[in-house]
Amino acid sequence: MDEPLQPMEPVIWQTPFDDPQWQFEIKWDGVRCLAYADGDDVRIYGRRGTNWSARFPELRAALKGCGKVLDGELVVLQDGRPSFPAVMRRLHRNDGPAHLMVFDCLCDGGRDLRREPTAVRQEKLLALPASSLVHRVEPVTGAGRALFEVARESGLEGVVAKRRDAPYVGGKSDLWRKVKCWRELRCVVLGLDEEKGEIRSVRLGAEQDGQVVPIGSVGNIARGAQQELRRALARGKTLVDVAYLEWTEDGSLRHPRWLRVAHPSGH
Predict the structure, then answer these.
(1) Where along the chain do its domains lie?
(2) What is the reported pTM?
(3) Partners of 114 in the beta sheet?
(4) Yes or no: domain 8-180 corresponds to CATH 3.40.50.150
(5) Taking the domain 183-261, which CATH number applies?
(6) How confident is the model over 74-88, as pLDDT tens digits?
(7) Which DSSP string do the residues of 84-131 spell out, in sequence order?
């Protein structure tokens, strides 16, 4: 099997749904990867084909000898929950174990499975090696709305819907659909981008390891909110709440949406 392959990616879908022809999985907040454990050596690649093998020796050891090519999400858990900032730090330095949440098998024992249905490919994951770092993502058939509510109430990223009879094709396909849970984050205001007296965007930061790091910017701020923000900035360090769908691989907020200036008493 050629490597690295282009991974199959879901399209954004606005609302959760139920359908017996589809299965639904929790979407883990991490970094996509393909793991080639089909030979003597285990190779791990990022979504864009970057070779990350040397960065994850613990996962290479856990997968050695399993004879499969796996698709999954690299995550770092904090208090039992995935942390995107933590997995981004883990990409650059070895400061704790990473976990691999596996949801597809592209090759098993030398047999290319990409033309097989999703349900058939995932049966091969029942034989994953026993490891505290490698986990099979459990699919739920038909009940997408209920699983979405579990994800939302648990503060997770969302769900991915997959046609049970779909082959594995590289690139985006509506045979896979991701339904995101909007999440909120309290951010530090790092600066303003203005034009003709109007605030076009607010540069945002987040506290990580005792430091404030930039995480992108948010725009489309109503005039009344702009005035409130200016008053807050005149008093000193200002926190704001934004909604977002996910993190990008470079550690920025994807699709941030302005909510409010955060006041000491809460929302």
Answers:
(1) 8-180, 183-261
(2) 0.77
(3) none
(4) no
(5) 2.40.50.140
(6) 999 988 889 888 888
(7) HHHHHHHHHS-SS--EEEEEEEEEETTEE-TTS-HHHHHHGGGGPPP-
